[in-house]
């Protein structure tokens, strides 16, 4: 069973990981006839045998999901850095974008479980009277959360491995029950406080907070329609609510935020200007240089060499 998208069908990456067009993860899975998957409405369970990849692949998803590694080891590049997981380990990814770097392992097999917010809300509300107190400080602002296994989580992944190995799709009621058991274990247990806090936060609103989505993903080269999808809003509603929250259009905010981040990278790293450009979501060097100069009064290379910037960088390295 081969479940990864053909490498010939995805964009080629000739520079740093961020700053390129991204692919919709759900669409990739649903298009691939070799993927072993079960679907129940917006719920999606999938298993992939992934061949080695010579180049990175960028993906985004409008649905939170678990990635469980069955064999070998894999890595992800997020806006916060590099994450990795090996056989038996699991990562939870919030709705957003990340990069699958190139890997040489030929026996990589993973399971993915896309869990819509409405399903999580139902479970949280059902368990409201039994949920232990969780400090708000444990809620992680990062796009990815490492999942700590307990007996219930291990049993879930073992059961799903058996189901994927079978010739028939398990009853939908059974799949939903298994997933509810998984969420219940995370919510009432003590092994995953950050993930439990995040699940509970989903009850506060029918749609994800725009500010959180934008901060986690502004460095990725995503269309405005994609940002709207990740925020679970129509494009017009997204733009209207965005302006109400920030007082700016999404396009203006993205430009300003990316320029701020590029200035920070120029001050604190030795990355080349072109690397900084891609890392901050820009595609064209001339456009980046022009926008940077309009904002900071200097070209990126000159800004890096400015005395005040150099002194700042040296103080940070002390």
Structure description:
The chain has 318 residues and is α+β, with helices and mostly antiparallel strands. The protein has two domains: 7-204, Jelly Rolls, CATH 2.60.120.810; 210-317, Arc Repressor Mutant, subunit A (Orthogonal Bundle), CATH 1.10.10. It is 44% helix and 19% strand. The strands form three sheets. Strands 2-3-10-5-8-11 form a six-stranded antiparallel sheet, sandwiched between helices. A three-stranded mixed sheet has the order 1-4-9. Strand 2 (36-40) and strand 3 form a beta hairpin. Helix 9 (250-268) crosses helix 11. The longest helix is centred in the C-terminal third of the chain and has 19 residues, at 250-268. The protein is globular and about 60 Å long. The relative contact order is 0.12.
Helix content: 40-55%
**Which CATH architecture of the largest domain would you pick?**
Sandwich
Based on CA atoms alone, the radius of gyration comes out at 21 Å
Widest β-sheet, arrangement of strands: 2-3-10-5-8-11
Distance between the termini: 53 Å
Largest sheet: 6 strands, antiparallel
Sum up the overall morphology in one term. globular
Total number of beta strands:
11
């Amino acid at each position: 069973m081969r479940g990864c998208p053909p490498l010939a069908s995805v964009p080629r990456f000739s520079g740093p990981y961020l700053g390129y067009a991204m692919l919709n993860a759900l669409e990739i899975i649903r298009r691939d006839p070799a993927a072993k998957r079960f679907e129940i409405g917006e719920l999606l369970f999938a298993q992939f045998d992934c061949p080695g990849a010579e180049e990175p692949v960028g993906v985004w998803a409008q649905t939170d999901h678990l990635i469980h590694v069955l064999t070998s080891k894999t890595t992800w590049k997020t806006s916060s850095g590099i994450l990795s997981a090996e056989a038996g380990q699991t990562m939870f990814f919030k709705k957003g974008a990340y990069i699958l770097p190139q890997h040489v392992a030929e026996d990589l097999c993973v399971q993915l479980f896309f869990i819509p917010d409405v399903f999580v809300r139902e479970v949280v509300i059902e368990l409201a009277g039994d949920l232990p107190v969780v400090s708000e400080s444990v809620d992680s602002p990062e796009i990815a959360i490492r999942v700590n296994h307990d007996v219930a989580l291990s049993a879930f992944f073992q059961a799903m491995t058996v189901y994927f190995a079978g010739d028939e799709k398990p009853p939908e009621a059974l799949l939903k029950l298994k997933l509810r058991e998984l969420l219940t274990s995370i919510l009432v247990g003590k092994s995953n406080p950050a993930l439990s806090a995040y699940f509970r936060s989903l009850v506060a609103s029918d749609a994800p907070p725009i500010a959180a989505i934008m901060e986690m993903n502004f460095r990725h080269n995503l269309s405005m329609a994609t940002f709207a999808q990740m925020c679970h809003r129509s494009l017009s509603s997204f733009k209207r609510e965005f302006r109400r929250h920030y007082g700016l259009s999404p396009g203006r905010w993205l430009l300003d935020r990316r320029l701020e981040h590029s200035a920070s990278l120029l001050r604190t790293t030795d990355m080349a200007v072109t690397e900084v450009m891609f890392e901050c979501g820009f595609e064209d060097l001339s456009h980046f240089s022009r926008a940077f100069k309009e904002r900071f009064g200097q070209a990126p290379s000159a800004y890096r060499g400015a005395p005040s910037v150099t002194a700042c960088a040296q103080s940070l390295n002390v």
